[in-house]
Amino acid sequence: MMKGPTGVIRDFPLTVYGHTQAAELGAFLSDGERTAPYPPPERVVSSPFIRCVAGGNGAIGIEHGVMEYYGTTPAGTGLHPRPAPNGAADLAAFFPGLLDDEYSSTLYPSRHGERVRDVFARAQLFADTWVGRMDDEGVRSAVLFSHAAVVIALGRALTGDWSLQVSAACAATSLYRRKPGTLGGAGDWERVYDGRADYLPAGAERDWSVGCGSEGGGELTALQDEGDFQQHSEADELPVGLAPGMDKYLRGRNVVYDPPKEAQRRPPVSRL
């Protein structure tokens, strides 16, 4: 199975064109006149996959809670990748001087993969916890660099609208604003704009969508993605869910994130 420069499967770098888009996105986000009346982000957080980290600039926090979504692993195919398990230290050589060494992940998805309902539950639990964490740090505005499925799930979790259409084009930006008088958990946000891409010369490209459903992400799904075909110990599967100590930031209702704890028996349907 192919690996990227980090030695992790599926952790591929941006293309040259992707780097161009990332630079255009970075220029937009750092320009207060262009983001007005909203301020540039005070906190930058990214999925640990290097194609996401490359989109940020300056003190980027590595956050597994917004990492890529993979379907459940068929039996005998190992686990899904978890890049940078030690956070910024694992990526320092690739992004010297650009990472926040003090930041640690809020949440970890299961390496056995997720059903669609699980990625929605993950987004809800992450929103309910991470916003409290940012409030505790006094952060007023932040940007999350993530992947299409998770971007869509977060948009629906933040607004509480599980049928919301969310744009997830490459290097596009969606903005959400907390509703006055709320704690800022899932359902406490309103969308200001969706999939903004006017700062990209070619506009929105490679938009993506994921099936919608009832609250919590709808029905179970048979989507599966093969793992890394390696042998693993039980310790390799951990942690899963909120990182130790992060429950103190949890607000809103008690969201259950309960992805599969073992490989599934259905025949694999590879999406790679």
From TrEMBL:
Record Gene3D superfamilies? Phosphoglycerate mutase-like
Instruction: Please identify the protein, giving its name as recorded.
Output: Uncharacterized protein
